[in-house]
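Reading group handout, session on sequence-to-structure problems. Before we discuss, look at one worked example. The prompt was deliberately terse, the way you'd type it at a terminal:

> structure AMP-dependent synthetase/ligase domain-containing protein

The input record follows.
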Amino acid sequence: MGDSEGSEQMEVGGFLSTLTVAKSYGPAVAILVAVTLPLILSSMFAGKKKVKQRGVPVEVGGEPGFGMRNARSKKLVDVPWEGATTMAALFEQSCKKHSHHRFLGTRKLIDRSFVAGSDGRKFEKLHLGEYQWETFGQVFERVCNFASGLIHFGHDPDTRIAIFSDTRAEWLIAFEGSFRQNITIVTIYASLGDDALIHSLNETKVTTLICDSKLLKKVGTVSSSLETLKNVIYFESDNSEALTNIGDWKISSFSEVEKLGKNNPVNARLPIKKDIAVIMYTSGSTGLPKGVMMSHGNVVATAAAVMTVIPGIGTNDVYLAYLPLAHIFELAAETVMITAGSSIGYGSALTLTDTSNKIQKGTMGDASALKPTLMASVPAILDRVRDGVVKKVKEKGGLITKLFNIAYKRRLLVVDGSWLGAWGLEKLLWDAIVFKKIQSILGGQIRFMLCGGAPLAADTQRFINVCIGAPIGQGYGLTETCAGAAFSEADDNSVGRVGPPLPCVYIKLVSWDEGGYLTSDKPMPRGEVVIGGFSVTAGYFNNEEKTNEVFKVDESGMRWFYTGDIGRFHPDGCLEIIDRKKDIVKLQHGEYISLGKVEAALASSRYVENIMLHADPFHSYCVALVVPPHQVLEQWAQSAGINYKDFADLCDKKETISEVQQSLTKVGKDAKLDKFEIPAKIKLMPDPWTPESGLVTAALKLKREPLKAKFKDDLQMLYA
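And the output record:
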């Protein structure tokens, strides 16, 4: 994720070309139908929104606060069904139940080529075929073989294995195989830097590393710093390079380990609920990453709870997997699919759509080939889908733009609950004329989307609801809660909220007097979000001090995690995240400024691809570093008659800075920001911030400390 050429932008070039089907009706007829039919239908039907109680206040232990539980269940959920208490048990039982149903799918590579960009760089283009599938039964056999193979590497429950790879089917097979021998898995982002990689492997004393063949070279460069590593197992690929001079380790291919286990089977040594399944290293925003210890019970509880939220999930569903499995959001999502017996088709952010960067022209992207019904996403990807659609609509102009705007407004009335009329008939009309081609970007079959990793902007959520025609379940959770905290429900059309607590946890708000957020606040209680229940993890590996700082156990033995996020509960029991303790800075004259809140507001400017606000307690104003989208800024420069040598030169020009500054001021005022919250000075950054650069996390959240360190001189100049 995070390619400088827009790896996950899911470009939508050309998708509106078939909207001209509307012209077959004749422009006058199309406009007449589009305008009058909805009005006639709306006069025939009427309805009122019903307020559904989604969360219920509850008395909880520990520090005093305002507690809430899910309205669906008085008792916290910890398993999807009796006996599925560990990841190993859950996986085995689901595989046997759905033995003949297709499970894991991977696309066959037909051809690879390279094209030269305008700057002389070469870009890889892939021609991918149809998905090739393995059944639950076949995958379970491979998992058992791999588990047996690991034992011949000297593994037992006291040893640890790390996975350092992009998302793929073998990642999940290695993951589940390790659990059949009660081996703890250490997960590491493929984009993690050398220092963090060394720290993660050494701290957990990993003896076997499983990785992509393309990442072997990276591991080899730090081999002298790895203290306990003995074995490397690599995933084969069609372009595997010669594996030579890579440490003094035993190096084996994944298929060799499977074959070894198949020929020398070993009985399973299964874990129990409290055993540690995963030590997940976060790409945290400060310092070296922390390893979060997740028990088998934690992961299973989250899956069991989410199963109750996604309507009708089952064997007919197809899930598109492309986010990092080393991130708890994707790991939890795929565990839910295993629980439900759904199919998982693997792709990547670089091959997601027909116009993605690595897809050869004329070749289907992953979504078109798979036609998923369920999909997870992070807000940054959905933002770019919205921006791409809006851009293409504007380019088309005329009848197409008018039809789109009418259709969008009509559907929006229903989505936001303003009108509950004859939606089925009207939906068919707008899908046929306007939205069908937009929906085909993601395969045309999406019925539910999961979104997490960062806050989702209200306008983006509405845009996806309208254009894709599917509800978005916006989730809130942390690695420390195994992603399980709150999840908005499919029939909840509100925006800006993350839903009620999942049935596996309680959520309470604890007053933060210093910040002025109190549980006694009216009309809604406010405070720090504290999560307690079955998904709350065991703490940080080898870091008791930090663990004790944010994890507490109450008098009943329930474990609570203090998130540092500030939230409020709506009357229906849904949580809204409104601030973050660490993001609040007091300016010179005593005003408090919430960096994250302001950044979210300013991100709606067309000139913002990424933005970091900076506030200094010794100054009365804030400043910002802004990464502008290349194409948008260059189009403005052309229309304004600005001459420039390259993009960096364009970013430095006074006229450009003034244009972006004016845009930020406007969106800031529209968002009702105070004057001191709008950056007084800005610096435009020509290069994107990517996970590979270490400036954003794998979920594309800002890493403030690395950003502040890298651009220290730029920030100082803004205050000069």
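Points for discussion. First: The CA atoms of residues 386 and 463 lie 7 Å apart. Second: The longest strand covers residues 102-116.
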